[in-house]
Amino acid sequence: MTTEILNATEAMTIEEALKVLINSRVTGLPVVDPVGKMIGVLSEYDILVQIASSESLKPEVFQQKIQFSKKADAIKEDTPIEEVMKRFVESKFRRLPVVDPQGKLVGIITRRDLMRVFYYRARLS
């Protein structure tokens, strides 16, 4: 799990979100409220849909506030690795936000994180 988390906020513009996604080489971001509680997920797809629904690609489009998926799948800190694997397989998500019991974002786990675990377990066998 990564605990140094990039995230988005409801007030973020498309331009700001693109800057984070491109410069950080990630394809999505958890969206948090002012106290750090997870309220959704922003993906490249969400941005494409929002831009495509605009009349044109004028600069004003990129100053719009982001539209993100409010239905976000997250896991708790103590979720067993077997359950994490199952969630990745069933959902085809690339990342799963990790939240504490109050719903505050504390980390993110990616498919790559699981691959690292499997790699090191295989080496120890």
| β-strand amount | 15-25%
Shape: elongated
SSE succession: EHEEHEHEEH
How are the strands ordered across the major sheet? 1-2-3
The CATH architecture category equals: Roll
Your description of this structure?
The model has no long low-confidence stretch (mean pLDDT 92). The protein is elongated, with a radius of gyration of 16 Å. Strand 5 and strand 6 form a beta hairpin. It has one domain: CBS-domain. The chain has four helices and six strands. By secondary structure, the chain is of the alpha/beta class. 36% of the residues lie in helices and 21% in strands. The chain has a three-stranded mixed sheet. It has a three-stranded mixed sheet with strand order 4-5-6.
Short summary:
With 125 residues, the protein is α/β, with parallel strands linked by helices. It has a single domain, classed as CBS-domain (Roll).
Secondary-structure topology with pairs:
Layout: E1 8-9, H1 14-24, E2 28-32, E3 38-43, H2 44-52, E4 75-76, H3 81-91, E5 95-99, E6 105-110, H4 111-124
Parallel strand pairs: 1-2, 4-5
Antiparallel strand pairs: 2-3, 5-6
Features:
CBS-domain; elongated; 21% strand; 4 helices; alpha/beta; three-stranded mixed beta sheet; 125 residues; single chain
